[in-house]
Amino acid sequence: xxxxxxxxxxxxxxxxxxxxxxxxxxxxxxxxxxxxxxxxxxxxxxxxxxxxxxxxxxxxxxxxxxxxxxxxxxxxxxxxxxxxxxxxxxxxxxxxxxxxxxxxxxxxxxxxxxxxxxxxxxxxxxxxxxxxxxxxxxxxxxxxxxxxxxxxxxxxxxxxxxxxxxxxxxxxxxxxxxxxxxxxxxxxxxxxxxxxxxxxxxxxxxxxxxxxxxxxxxxxxxxxxxxxxxxxxxxxxxxxxxxxxxxxxxxxxxxxxxxxxxxxxxxxxxxxxxxxxxxxxxxxxxxxxxxxxxxxxxxxxxxxxxxxxxxxxxxxxxxxxxxxxxxxxxxxxxxxxxxxxxxxxxxxxxxxxxxxxxxxxxxxxxxxxxxxxxxxxxxxxxxxxxxxxxxxxxxxxxxxxxxxxxxxxxxxxxxxxxxxxxxxxxxxxxxxxxxxxxxxxxxxxxxxxxxxxxxxxxxxxxxxxxxxxxxxxxxxxxxxxxxxxxxxxxxxxxxxxxxxxxxxxxxx
Length: 508
Prior knowledge:
Elements: E1 2-3, E2 6-7, E3 13-15, H1 20-25, H2 33-50, H3 52-58, E4 64-72, E5 78-85, H4 92-98, H5 117-125, E6 126-134, E7 140-147, H6 148-154, E8 158-160, E9 162-165, E10 172-180, H7 190-200, H8 202-206, E11 210-214, E12 217-218, E13 228-229, E14 240-241, E15 243-250, E16 253-261, E17 271-276, E18 279-282, H9 292-295, H10 301-305, E19 306-313, H11 327-341, E20 342-343, E21 346-347, H12 348-354, H13 361-370, E22 383-384, E23 400-401, E24 410-417, E25 420-429, E26 436-439, E27 447-453, H14 468-487, H15 492-503
Helix pairs in contact: 2-5, 2-7, 14-15
Pfam families: HATPase_c_3
Organism: Segatella copri
InterPro entries: HATPase_C_sf (IPR036890)
C-alpha cells in the first residue's frame, strides 16, 4: 500500500539479531564455495518462479540471468565477489524477514526454504557484504550493508536500510562480498566451481529456465552420451538405447528419473545425481552417489558405466542442501530401482558389466597404416631372421596391400622371414579372452593371419588415436611370434630377441 507516493510502513532497519558471536562462526560451517554460491542462485530462481507471469509480461523475451563475478588483485588473488540477478527482487513484504537469521519464509516449499541462505552464504565468504535490491512495482531500491567487525564490536541487533529512488518497473538483486574469509575460493578453483554449478542446476540449464554466467562466461550442462548397442549376449540383434525411465515409491517417499549406461567410460560421470525441487542435492560433478548393491565394487564395469538422475520427494535435506540424511529410505528407493533395470527382457546390469567397447576399426586401421612395415631409412625393407645375426639381412622390397573384400575389417601387409616373403593379414574379431592370436592355417600360401580381439579389455583402457604405439606393438608381436614359430623356438628369450630385432628396424 502506498500513500502520497510513500509506503505506509517503510522499514528503516532490518533485524540481524542472533547473538553477535554466531556471525563470526558462520565461516566455520562445513560447506563448499559452489554450494554457498548456489544459495544466491536458489534465491534468484525462486524469485523468478514466484513472479514469472509478471516478469514475462513486462519484458518481451524475458530471460532470468544470474551472474557471478570474482574480482582479483594484481597478484590474481580473489578479493571480492559479486552476484547479481534480474529476478523479481526482494519486496517490502519480505525484506524485513529476509535478514533475520533462521527466519523461514512463509512458503518453505521452494528453493529458499531455511531462511539461512543469504546471510550464512555471504558471511561464509566474506566479513563485509552489501545487498541492494529493487522489487517490481516499488519505486525505491533498498540497500543493507553488513560489517562483521561493527556488529560484533557494537553488538548490533539491527542494520539501517538505505532507500534510493528507482523505476517502479526495475527488478534486480545485487550482492557484493568483500574482506574475504579463508573460504573465499582461489582463482584456480573457478573452473571447478563452474563445473559444479553446471551439475547442480543441470535441469534448469537443460530446460533453458535461466542463464547462468561466471566471469561473463555462460554455464551450460552437457548431457552424457548413452550407450546404443545390441545386447551383449545377442551381438547380432538390433541396437538398444540403454536408458530407462524410472518411477518408484516407498510410502511417502517418491523417486523419478532415469538410469542409463554411459557410451564411454569417463571418471566423474558414473554414479547417480539425486535431485530435489529441480536441483541436485547429492551427486554434483565428481561427487556422484554409488550403490554397491547393484553397481558392484569400484573397478567393475557396472560401477564405471551406470549413471542416472533421480528426483526425490518426501525427503528433508541438510541446511546447506548437499545431503539427504535419511539414507535408509533413500536406499529403499534404490532397491526398487534395481528391480526395474534387472529384467529378463532388459537386463541393464548384465549389459553394463559385460559390454566392451569395440574400438573403432577405422581408428586402429589408420594407425596400422601409419606405422606400416617401413624401415627407418625408408629405402631398405625390413627383414627378420630366425638365426641371430649382428647385421641386418638383405630382403626384397615389400608392398602394402589393402584387402578389396572388406576394407573396414581387415588389413594386409608384406614382411620377410629368412628372406621369404609373407603376407600379414590383420582381421578384427570379437570374443575369446586373448588380445590377439596368430592363425597359421594358410601358411602354405605364405599368409599369417593375426586375429585382434576388439572386445578385449585392453581396448577399454586406451584411446587408439592417442596410443598408436600400443597398436604397433601388437602387430610387431604377431610377426615376432610367427618368426619364433618358424625357428621352432617358443622360449620367451627367443621371442623377445626376434621382437627387438624387428621393432628396432621399423619406422616409428
